[in-house]
Structure to design on (639 residues):
């Protein structure tokens, strides 16, 4: 997984003209995007632009009403989050990733517990689980003294990191992160961003959703901007500046005025 | 506070804020801690106030017999609570299962094994229906099973009158069941040989004719201990156990991680109903009859025992062994007061206080465990 594939390999995920209706509400009206191995694609857009809806279709939570969805060049249709996981698409949600009352180890292996022993006495190998958890967390620089401690005792950033580490460990090809930094402080944000970079270096494709253009610019290779359920455009990092991207996201002029009043920074 | 230069991504530099996990923290994390502490307190109380005969072998059995019947229900209720749901219909289910079991034996003249099978299957089906309604409607299980509390109790009354031609008690069950190994599994006492041997060797008390005063362990106690052991093992060591905690802790997160939340919950409802059926079979066989008041208010007692055992009302946390101790505390207090000079009507006051204490304690522990403030 670590060596990069040649340019000709198909993108890990590609969607073309994807459409999603909720009854009469049109959440997505023809969105196209793709992400390749070893690339961070940032998905930007204002509130209600359809970012979450798009990633929900990618992660098997909702089914698209129309359009093409290709994984490694082959069309797919997911019926459940499990299908997406099995296809190597792992999604990290802001709040819905971890169970606070359960231990780090139990969360890490949730749904994919390694078992030992013959059927009636088949049990989870928690000793091995704890070792792996400790090791994987160590790799990303979080030293957990006790893998049996409840996830609720971890900070928001650490929780995000456990969720990401879990996805990587279980062989995800694409990692989808829905606003992973929205509730985090400066240090924790840099921890998560650094880790996203690390995951990219491993050769995974990353889809990173954020409202913060600075965070996007820090780790992204390409930026896809959504607006009202449509793709406004996709830009390489070399093609666009931070300011231009910011304006595009908010749809122009209004923001400049406000931004001026705030002393030019948001 | 940690200074700014705290290195991010440097694992060799261990975080000084994490204290070494001590023995105490380790114990605090066990949900059954409160129940064990409570048990010690209650035993100490009776040791000081009660007649010595309470702590004799026969005294112990008189306490354990009702405690074990409640305990079987409490362990199932605890599993369901950990899975994030309640079942208020278990008490009525005991009565309903008793009716089905009794009617299958007497009115339909079925052999014991068929009666047991039918009772268990029907209970499991009813439990699964409860579960499916809760899952599909997303209504709180509290209200759905409250409806079944009345539905099942009413059905039992109607059914009993139909089966007996107007009475609310179905008799003659003892006469139609012949002795055999299957009956031995569900009624009477176990380890009789061992107890006779112990008596013969003067290790336990016996009557003048050599028969031990306590002839064996009631089968319900054996079931109780076996179920507690099995439930604990499943909860702590198996994948299903992991999913039970997850389903109660955060069903959405569990689903997103690929856990089969709905199947686990449905299974737990079916299991709870089967536990009620088991208690029905044991008590009906022992009494030789069944009536409409069987299992009355047992749903509350079972939930109280589970809470005393460390289960959180919000789900996702608790233990089966805690419910085991919770049921024993229950038995100790309800029977134990008769061995003291206190009026046994103090029982309910005692119980309510225990419950309140347990809930406060559990809340405190939950905050400790999750670091929630
Ligand atoms: N389950 C639903 N039923 C009806 N409409 C929905 C549903 N989910 C989303 N929508 C609508 O679809 C549109 C896109 O929503 P979505 O959550 O994808 O936006 P978003 O880009 O993630 O916004 P934010 O940045 O605020 O998270 C919104 O107008 C929303 O109201
Ligand atoms: Mg969103």
């Amino acid at each position: 997984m670590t060596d990069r594939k040649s340019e000709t390999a198909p993108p890990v995920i590609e969607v073309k003209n994807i459409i999603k209706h909720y009854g009469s509400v049109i959440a997505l009206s023809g969105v196209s995007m793709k992400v390749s191995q070893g690339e961070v694609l940032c998905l930007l857009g204002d509130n209600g632009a359809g970012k979450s809806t798009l990633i929900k279709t990618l992660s098997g939570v909702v089914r698209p009403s129309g359009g093409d969805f290709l994984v490694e060049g082959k069309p797919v249709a997911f019926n459940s989050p499990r299908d997406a996981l099995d296809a190597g698409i792992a999604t990290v949600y802001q709040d819905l990733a971890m169970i606070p009352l359960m231990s780090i180890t139990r969360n890490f292996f949730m749904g994919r517990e390694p078992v030992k022993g013959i059927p009636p006495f088949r049990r989870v190998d928690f000793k091995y689980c704890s070792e792996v958890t400790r090791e994987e967390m160590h790799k990303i620089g979080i030293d957990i003294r006790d893998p049996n401690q409840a996830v609720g005792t971890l900070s928001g950033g650490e929780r995000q990191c456990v969720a990401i580490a879990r996805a990587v460990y279980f062989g995800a090809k694409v990692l989808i992160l829905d606003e992973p930094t929205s509730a985090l402080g400066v240090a924790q944000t840099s921890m998560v961003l650094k880790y996203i970079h690390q995951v990219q270096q491993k050769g995974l494709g990353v889809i990173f959703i954020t409202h913060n253009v600075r965070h996007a610019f820090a780790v992204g290779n390409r930026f896809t901007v959504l607006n009202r359920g449509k793709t406004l455009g996709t830009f390489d990092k070399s093609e666009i500046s931070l300011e231009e991207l910011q304006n595009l996201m908010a749809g122009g002029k209004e923001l400049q005025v406000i931004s001026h009043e705030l002393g030019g920074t948001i | 506070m940690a200074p700014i230069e705290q290195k991010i991504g440097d694992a060799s530099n261990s975080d000084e804020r994490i204290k070494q996990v001590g023995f105490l923290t380790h114990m605090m994390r066990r949900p059954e801690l409160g129940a064990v502490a409570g048990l010690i307190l209650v035993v100490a109380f009776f040791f000081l106030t009660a007649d010595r005969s309470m702590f004799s072998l026969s005294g112990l059995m008189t306490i354990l017999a009702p405690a074990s019947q409640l305990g079987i229900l409490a362990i199932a209720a605890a599993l369901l609570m950990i899975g994030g749901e309640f079942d208020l219909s278990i008490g009525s289910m005991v009565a309903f299962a008793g009716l089905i079991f009794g009617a299958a034996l007497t009115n339909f003249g079925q052999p014991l094994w068929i009666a047991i099978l039918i009772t268990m299957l029907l209970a499991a089906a009813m439990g699964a229906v409860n579960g499916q309604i809760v899952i599909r409607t997303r209504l709180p299980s509290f209200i759905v099973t409250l409806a079944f509390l009345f539905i099942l109790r009413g059905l039992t009354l109607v059914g009993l009158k139909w089966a007996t031609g107007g009475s609310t008690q179905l008799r003659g069950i003892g006469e139609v069941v012949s002795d055999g190994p299957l009956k031995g599994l569900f009624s009477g006492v176990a380890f009789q040989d061992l107890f006779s041997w112990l008596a013969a060797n003067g290790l336990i008390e016996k009557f003048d004719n050599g028969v031990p005063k306590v002839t064996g362990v009631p089968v319900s106690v054996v079931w109780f201990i076996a179920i507690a052991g099995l439930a604990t093992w499943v909860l702590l060591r198996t994948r299903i156990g992991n999913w039970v905690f997850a389903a109660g802790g955060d069903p959405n997160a569990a689903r997103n991680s690929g856990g089969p939340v709905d199947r686990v919950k449905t299974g737990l409802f079916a299991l709870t109903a089967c536990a009620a059926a088991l208690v029905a079979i044991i008590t009906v066989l022992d009494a030789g009859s069944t009536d409409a008041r069987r299992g009355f208010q047992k749903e509350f007692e079972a939930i109280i025992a589970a809470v005393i055992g460390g289960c959180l009302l919000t789900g996702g946390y608790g233990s089966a062994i805690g419910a085991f101790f919770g049921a024993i505390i229950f038995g100790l207090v309800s029977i134990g007061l008769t061995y003291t000079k206190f009026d046994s009507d103090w029982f309910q006051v005692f119980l309510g206080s225990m419950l309140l204490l347990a809930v406060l304690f559990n809340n405190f522990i939950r905050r400790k465990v999750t670091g929630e403030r």
User: Anything to note?
Assistant: The CA atoms of residues 24 and 152 of chain A lie 39 Å apart.
